[in-house]
Design a protein that fits this description.
The chain is of the alpha/beta class. The protein is built from seven helices and six strands.
Length: about 220
Amino acid sequence: MERFSDKVVFISGAAKGQGAVEAAMFGAENAKVVITDILDEPGTLLQKHLASLGIDCLYIHLDVTDESEWEKAYSQTLSKFSKVDVLVNNAGIVSRNSITQTSLEEWENVLKINATGSFLGTKLAVPIMQEIGGGSIINMSSTGGLVSSPTLGAAYASSKAAIHLLTKTTALQYAKDNIRCNSVHPAPIETDMTADVRADEKRLADMVRRIPMGRY
């Protein structure tokens, strides 16, 4: 299928894990894909792999907490592809510490990467999408952004909840410009980010117990 023919999809945190799968899936639908991350080696390798499959793609280094890097990344994208039809705010990190165990530095870092990164990506994508008459913004939140649990990291849950409301606000403010904004709220996914929990039988059992299908 080629549902994304002539569409340009920009994905943050796409060098590995969930973002890399997203890039491959959009590419399989004939999208032009922009892979961005701070992990340059796997990002470049992914770009080469996707290109070998006939996918038109570009890798760009991007620290999502730095507004100037977002500006440069979008500038490079426009130079090559002329537009951005879809933004996937995928970049994120996890924190499993309770409130009292969370340092101010950890709190600020998680919120900055997860929530502020999504804000910056959205803020700078909107004018580009307005210029071409619309677009789609997809924010990766989590079930942890909707309901919490005793073992869910305070900073992580708060950052994902912030993304949830950022999504609603974006959707309401820019619907008039034909820009859609949706958030995705997955339960845990089998990636490197969840490897530590899956290696701990007690924590894994607690996590799986709260997943309706009983598996990651």
